[in-house]
UniProtKB/TrEMBL annotation:
This is Probable queuosine precursor transporter. Its main location: membrane. The chain crosses the membrane at residues 7-27, 33-55, 67-85, 91-111, 123-149, 181-202. The lineage of its organism: Bacteria, Pseudomonadati, Pseudomonadota, Alphaproteobacteria, Hyphomicrobiales. It is a multi-pass membrane protein. Involved in the import of queuosine (Q) precursors, required for Q precursor salvage.
Amino acid sequence: MLKSRYTLIYVLLMTLIVVASNILVQYPLQATLAGINLADILTWGAFTYPVAFLITDLTNRQFGPKAARKVVFAGFVVGVTLSFFTAQPRIAIASGSAYLAGQLLDISVFNRLRRMAWWRAPLFGSLIGSMLDTVMFFSFAFAPFFVFFGPNDPFAIDWAPILGAFSTSAPRWISWAIGDFSVKVTVGLVMLLPYGALMNVLKPMQPVRAA
């Protein structure tokens, strides 16, 4: 009963993060940093989405990978449903695929490192999962090779200075991916603080075998 109650809470939190990220992704970050116009490469959704990895890791720590996968699949259903109503089919496919693959990889890495120093599992799990998430989403959504998912976005594949500030040029979606992953790394490091603070509160309910 207690496990079901906590799992439901994690599912609700994951749903909240997915919904919030789908809304906030529509709002560019109006700021500049080192001459880079962040509004060109970032949205507020980039800051909320990485919290999903914290929720997954806390579930994994407390109840193991099986429960964590349930939470991830619940978020997947909500995310894909929202994406198909609010975005083009290609973006919805990219978003759902990247979310599912990234979160499941996070669970696997976390479970392998759970017996090591407390920070290794959540840090490396979220970073490796975020890397896969970023590569899959921006490739599926914008790379010309994946045109079978939907028509290419001319603005996204048009070449421009990387991050709008360097002399080297690349398709705009490359800059978007770099900016997005940079935020995920930063937020992933910050999320170690609440994870560490909650470790002694949300203790494993039963022994979990690393696999």
